Fold each of these.
Amino acid sequence: MMNDKIKLCYDVPADDFTRAGEASSNVKSKLKMMGVNPEIIRKVAIAMYEGEINMVIHAFGGTIDVVITPDEIEMVLKDDGPGIENIELAMQAGYSTAPDNIRSLGFGAGMGLPNMKKYTDELNIDSTVGVGTTVTMKVKMNER
Amino acid sequence: MMKVNELINQCGFEVMNEGNHTDREVTIPFCCDLLSIAMGRMPAGAAWVTVMANINTLAVATLADAACIILAEGSRLDDAAYQKAKEQGVTVLLTENPIFETALMVYQKLHA
Ligand SMILES: Nc1ncnc2c1ncn2[C@@H]1O[C@H](COP(=O)(O)OP(=O)(O)OP(=O)(O)O)[C@@H](O)[C@H]1O
Ligand SMILES: [Mg+2]
């Protein structure tokens, strides 16, 4: 079953917290059905959720493409939001521009991007101010 | 070692949503209200004690693989979150006690 390449595509709606996390949950249950190692699933679920929720909070939603191969899981999250001016700064633990109404929901610790780094084997952020952000993450199937 | 259902009985929590995995082992209590810190630090199988009771709490609990959520200080899920808890089979427990006392009680039961 794991010999094939599986591609999954999701639309992440803007400003909809009731649906944010659905794409990540869906990928999680698909990986579970495929019998992927629970630790790998956890890494993918955490990293993808942080990216997904960032697209809802900081951009206007977007799309997520997930490609699963026997070697790795690749997630590409694309939005056409405001972009990130200083990626190095955004990556710092504790840095957040989340407004108060978002913080009152429990977001805004500035740990989303650090989590994405921590739980993936590769993280690449490509962002242009006023155009949008593409986040590419890879998790290897074999635990390092 | 203790399962979620044993923890419910021994700690006298009110059950807001029983969930589908009450035979799961609880590993450790974990406290944090900031979602991405919880996401990054919560061990799998944790009993997550928090006052944050919205739909994002459910998402974090499921994705980070918590064993159950314990809402402290009398906080309760809103309707949308309650629906999500039922849908996803997440165990959600309630207590009037503060976060620290709740986590301490869980810890003591786990290590009794
Ligand atoms: N897709 C995005 N588009 C525009 N800006 C972004 C995007 N993702 C992240 N950022 C910027 O990077 C900052 C840091 O992101 P990070 O996920 O680490 O923290 P946060 O979302 O603010 O809070 P937390 O994730 O801890 O709830 C954000 O506050 C925001 O300014
Ligand atoms: Mg974030």
Note: Chain B has one domain: 2-110.
Amino acid sequence: MALLSGAQILLESLAREGAEAVFGYPGGVTLPIYDVLYDHPLRHVLVRHEQNAVFAAEGYARATGKAGVCMATSGPGATNLTTGLVDALMDSIPVVAITGQVPQALIGRDAFQEADTFGISRSATKHNYLVKDVRELSQTIHEAFYIAISGRPGPVLVDITKDVLLAEAPYSGQQAMEPLRGYRLEVEPTPEAVERAVEFLWNAERPYIYAGGGIISSGASEELVRFSELLEAPLAHTVMGLGGMPAGHPNYISMLGMHGSYAANLGITHCDALIGLGVRFDDRVTGRLDKFAPDAKVLHVDIDPAEINKNRRADLGVVGDARAVLKRLNERLAETRGTLGKKRRQTRLAWMQHIREMKREHPFCYQGSSEEIKPQCLMEKLDEIAGGDSIVTVDVGQHQMWAAQYLRFNAPRLWQSSSGLGSMGFGVPAAVGAKVACPERQVIAIVGDGGFMMSIPELGTIASNRLPVKIIVMNNNTLGMVRQWQELFYDKRYSEIDITSFPDASLLAASFGITGGSVASPEDLDDALQHAFAEPGPYLLNVQVAPEECVYPMVPAGGAVSEMILQPESQAAEAVAGD
Amino acid sequence: MQQLISLLVENKAGALMRVAGVLTSRGYNIESLTVAKTIDPTLSIMTIVAEVSEQGRELLIKQISRLVNVVKAVDLSESRAVRRELALIKVFVEENRRAAVLTEAQVFRAHIVDASPNSYTLEVTGSQDKLNALISLLRSYGPVEMIRSGTMAMARAKHNKLPVPRFSESALSDG
Ligand SMILES: Cc1cc2nc3c(=O)[nH]c(=O)nc-3n(C[C@H](O)[C@H](O)[C@H](O)COP(=O)(O)OP(=O)(O)OC[C@H]3O[C@@H](n4cnc5c(N)ncnc54)[C@H](O)[C@@H]3O)c2cc1C
Ligand SMILES: Cc1ncc(C[n+]2csc(CCOP(=O)(O)OP(=O)(O)O)c2C)c(N)n1
């Protein structure tokens, strides 16, 4: 068997696991890897900051469902990964992060660029490794990919000491792995659980499907649509679930939660059977827990047993892969259709009708303007351009919520949002990763002016890799979401929210060798967008929008979701929905 | 409320850090933690006693179980598990009361493991209550120094929920 160096084994192993690209940044202890990379076919994308290497890897993973790979050197390179790793952990995104570590002989001696990466990344990953023996490297990489992708996906970090990268070992290319004794996967539901769930589902009078990221990661879209159709039940998505069911489907309501629609939030408040599918009852969805779906019995399907009963006690918890569970349920539902009596069916149809009426009467709305570009208007236009099948990445803040409200997706894996951690600076590098993964697809990054300022270095990556992504900056000159909270909950005492000295977009873009422009008046918006999307290469468009707009509806943090604020005070006395 | 958790974990670098991390990141104070290899040297058993609210227990067990190196975690708080702790207690005692200390030791089945002209060191095992009782008794004889091992717990025969490796099926036979 051929003897290979650790660095060679690493790259061979990555290729073997199906990695198509590595997003990385080199440094001292990873020099042996970069030396092998010099004439290796594996594609490396040089990002401009390690944090963006993870975000780009996430962008790749969110677009494809495969593990995204990133790489950083020891010490500062590794610590720069931390935010991205936690981001992937919170949103259950499969990422494999490779870091270099100082030689074993120096560990623990405050060596140059030594950091306790294994310790630091412990709580930032699903699992992590410190490789100290070159003979274990190949197997460790295999395990890392397996753990990242299987079950509830998540980030796995592999820290490799420099001496391991330099040492030699035989490499067979086998994907051998000892059984992981502590790693259990419960994919198929038990038959008893399925039967109890079927009974639960037919007994409901006002069923409501609350579906999230687990639908996307299990690839259960088709099954989900069928499930909703069999049950004739309305369905709302979390921010993480958008695209799980096509937005145009008649059973689809909208996003629910803090910035969800009236129909979605009132629906969940009044349902008697809440069907949670691959969701984690996040506080941005539930608001005040004791007033969340107060009349409902809960059926919760999740692949992670620790999610069942975590925030809301489930009357019936089904542990399993969403797709596998829905397949079984759909079979049984089809077989037992007759169970639903005529009267109950009538009640259920009336419930569905009621939800559809609420949706029609209370769509997401805003006051138009001919003087300034309303952010919601921008989102509507971007929705048209995206056409339901472009990849759209967003950053964090108001623009993120407006995009979630107004953009409609026909398929999963098109929408990418840092949702659980809410890390500003995500949108642009995620678009880099998405474009590398799906070069044929239109990729649009919609970001705020604040978040964009955190991502400017990646214009370099976009330019040098000639990645034709479209960056749309929704520029309100402020940290909009913080401004909104200060306006609503801190007596308009606006503190440290002005993003002044925003660069001239066309000059900034030009200085990176790409094209860009700005638009501020509503009558020029269509042309500006058309121009941006007609450009074959990347484009940076700075859209100056109304600075004082707030995202509505809004459930104040810790409030009941039925008590959302529907519109600004100026338009009406605070409209309180609910019973 | 004290929660008593018994864990079978893979004996791998970082396993202890991972388990402890689940507790500490949630702000739980670990009262005691014991860990040692089983008959199968690739596995260890940990016993943890921590202050955890009633509502937090199920979640904590599940979140520990979720760790890749944890083979099994069980909550023994409510079970009739055998619980034992070992203590080494050094008591400084006046000449005229030495004999009395020896009698106390006998009552508690403690062994004298070291003696000096002005002190005895006792080794005792038992339940937490038994140890506490002996310690407070000895304090009436003079200053006391002590080291406790922390609780070890083993489920009773019928309720043995941890798949603890046994001699018959152990890795020992493989060498
Ligand atoms: C500014 C801001 C505002 C926000 N406002 C809202 C809002 O209004 N509404 C909203 O919904 N969110 C909002 N969020 C996002 C929110 O914080 C959460 O990230 C989101 O609600 C979680 O989505 P989820 O429940 O689908 O869970 P995810 O984080 O997507 O988790 C997926 C769940 O599915 C499970 N799972 C994974 N794989 C499988 C599988 N194969 N089979 C079955 N189960 C699986 C996992 O165990 C997990 O429980 C906001 C975020 C930000 C930053
Ligand atoms: C790294 C990071 N720092 C701080 C925050 C807190 N935060 C949430 S939204 C927001 C404002 C974002 O402003 P901008 O990027 O301009 O977007 P907008 O809300 O205006 O759409 C801030 C500061 C965060 N989410 N992430």
Note: Residues A 395-399, 422-424, 448-451, 474, 476, 479-482 surround thiamine diphosphate (ligand 2) (CB under 6 Å).
